[in-house]
Description:
five-stranded mixed β-sheet, 15% helix, Purple Acid Phosphatase, chain A, domain 2, alpha/beta
Amino acid sequence: MKILLLSDLHIPTRCDIDRLKAINFDVYDQIFLTGDITSVDVLDFLDNQRPILQVVHGNMDDLYIKNKLPQKVVIELYGKTFGLIHGHQTGVAIPEKLIKYFNEKLDVLVFGHTHFQEKYHKSSTIFINPGAFCEGYHGEIEMDEINFRISLLHL
């Protein structure tokens, strides 16, 4: 399974949708998007791609998107529990505090908001911020029953 990690799209205010359209979505099974989409058209575009879209809203999303999307999502894949959250809930996105928004134990927490890429392991959780897509950053997870690999990328 291959998962595309996106956050902080800020389309069309900080980047053009053509950057998003340049992605080959056919190679992914799922998209984990942690908010700041800022456009219903962008949300509709992603929802119409082949991969399953798992998405939460961010602080810059309009009221329509905030009402349509949850603040957090929990996903189970290959025995791992993933949590998605934007990160604005703790001000500057403090991962160790963000995890407290979830009632279950998470193996992986994917968040955004800071626009900085980061990946680290603390206690029994892997924390991943794919960085701001509007600045060319994103990430990928490749996994199956045995393997688990995270890549932080730049366009």
